[in-house]
Design brief:
Strand content: under 5%
Helix content: over 70%
Number of helices: 2
Shape: elongated
Structural class: mainly alpha
Radius of gyration: 20 Å
Order of helices and strands: HH
Distance between the termini: 22 Å
Largest sheet: none
Amino acid sequence: MAPVRSEARLGLLLLSALSLLSAGLVAAAQDPGTAIPAESRPCVDCHAFEFMQRALQDLKKTAYSLDTRKLFKASLQTA
């Protein structure tokens, strides 16, 4: 089960790095003193939630495929 945990940690690390980079890029793109009205900004929380949901689904699919591969190899060895 260790490879699944390491992949989950790697995925979480990548997601964290992407969120930090995107936050830095957004902050760098805005001129000082200008503000974007809330009505024209996308809902950041909604987008982040959707992104995290998709990433979690991808991690679950990867974990499932690794588990089935491991079970398949184990069944071949016992047969």
